[in-house]
Amino acid sequence: MTFAIIKERKNPPDRRVVFSPQHLAEARAQFPEATFVVESSDIRIFPDEAYAKLGFEVLQDVSHADVMIGVKEVPIENLIPNKKYFYFSHTIKKQPYNRKLLIAMLEKNIEMFDHETIVKEDNARLIGFGRYAGLVGAYNGFRALGLRDNLFTLPKVETLADLDEVKAELDKITIPNIKILLTGTGKVAYGAKEILDHLGIKQISDALYLTSQFTEPVYVMADVMEYAKRKDGKVGDRLKFYKDPTGYESNFMAYAKETDYFIAGHFYGNNAPYLFTREDAKHPDFRINLVADISCDIDGPVASTIRPSTIADPFYGYDAKTEKEVVFNAEDAITVMAVDNLPCELPKDASEGFGETFLKYVIPAFYNNDKDEVLKRAKITENGKLTERFSYLQDYIDEK
Length: 400
Prior knowledge:
This protein is α/β, with parallel strands linked by helices. It has 2 domains: about 1-125 and about 350-400, 3-Layer(aba) Sandwich (Rossmann fold), CATH 3.40.50; about 130-345, Rossmann fold. The chain has helices at about 20-30, 50-55, 100-105, 130-150, 165-170, 185-200, 205-210, 225, 240-245, 255, 280, 345-360, 375-380, 395-400, and strands at about 1-5, 35-40, 55-60, 65-70, 85, 110-115, 180-185, 200-205, 220, 230, 250, 260-265, 290-295, 315-320, 325, 335, 380, 385. The chain has an 8-stranded mixed β-sheet with strand order 3-2-1-4-5-6-17-18. An 8-stranded mixed β-sheet has the order 8-9-7-12-13-16-14-15. It has a two-stranded antiparallel sheet with strand order 10-11. Strand 17 (about 380) and strand 18 form a beta hairpin.
């Protein structure tokens, strides 16, 4: 079986890749029966020569390969019929902008495996760039703080070589006496936590956070059962909440009254209560003045996130009174960082981390009869039809 590392063609260009040259060499060593080829790319974080140096064929045309491995959506005109594809298709939530892409994959008889659907039996994701989104998002929030309040100047992550350089820049700054709320307990949140811990910011309990003031910066990592509560006053159950959050309401205001900098690292599920609304943000006790919204759900659970921002222009302000966008450093505004492709700023580290997990969970499945059913669970399309697991997308395709 031949696996091809394909060129990223989506705009704006994405420099990430699923396998670094080193991890591809590890894959070859572990699976000598597999053939790995690389499609030539002038934008990839690792140059063609780095792959060629390790003995990989770098080709202009990889259409002979069986399995195509990329990161972002493949333009419809570049999809090769009757192949297996791995990439982030952004279709499983019925995203309207990619409906035609899913239809094209069905028409071209493509077997589609979405990186997002590579999950364990309990649906926990096995691979992704979440950690890097968390790392860059938290850093960007501090960068905004420094610029807005004239405290310090951090360079953009994209100008730094790797995570070590990012952390070296953080070593040069001093964080003022602020209270930081980090939501989430997954890879994104733990990526953000890495930044907070590197800065030496003290983690405290929810109880202390909600009741005390400090003479040094502190943070709390709040679980969904802390910032959402059952409407009937009974004790919440996280697993039941994930299945059906309709019986819950937000308890976020208790945190908003005590928080200066909010890092949104949670996963927001459909029908879950919003963390804070536009009305909440108008409340005189609402203290949050800086939001790094890594989850980046637009006009949803985090009211100040009214649009995504970009790597080129990462910050804007949200005026709670007018509910309008203002400049990021406007007086009394909430400063918002809502870049929706954060891992792109750290392409080398993100690619290396991704390749490590892809090699651990995905490639073996092709050679062990998919004994853990990783491929079976991940497959969205087959034989021109949706797989049973993704049959709920049929009305999206039919546009009903």
